[in-house]
Amino acid sequence: MATNVVRRWQRDDRMKQRVLIVEDEFLIALDLEATVEGMGMQVAGLANDCEQALRLAPLADIAFVDVNLADGPTGPEIGRRLAQEHGIAVVFMTGNPEIVADGVKGAVGVVQKPVMPSVVEQLVKYLAARRVGMFAVVPSQMTVFA
């Protein structure tokens, strides 16, 4: 019975994770937001540049970050800061994965765009489980940083 209580607590805690979407293409950001909310999870906010992302950081647990944003190729620096300064689980979603191929300190990994909603769901589940100490399978579309 205690195991069931722990699992239920972990599952409930996993679903309370808030997702920050750092993306300058508005339609892509809205699509990600709809997918996350469709899972019953909360979106902490949408940001299209460094300033907005860092302002929303205290509200987030997970972040999807594009590499090229409204203020230039600031995504890798944003991802590093979100992970290191705020403890956010960061995955880059980009059409240019080679830019972060060597990894970004603190970030979890990268997925190449376009990203299907089913992959977004897998990523959210993986990152949320990872944050609460649950076992989770790494989505096959994600390249994990060392």
Automatic annotation (TrEMBL):
- Keyword Transmembrane helix listed? The answer is no
Keywords per UniProt: Phosphoprotein
Q: Name one Pfam family in it.
A: Response_reg
Tell me which residues bear 4-aspartylphosphate.
D66
* Residues passing through the membrane, by range: none
Span of domain Response regulatory? 18-128
NCBIfam families according to UniProt = PRK13435.1-3
Question: Would you tell me the protein name for this molecule?
Answer: Response regulator
Protein's organism: Rhizobium anhuiense
Q: What is the lineage of its organism?
A: Bacteria, Pseudomonadati, Pseudomonadota, Alphaproteobacteria, Hyphomicrobiales
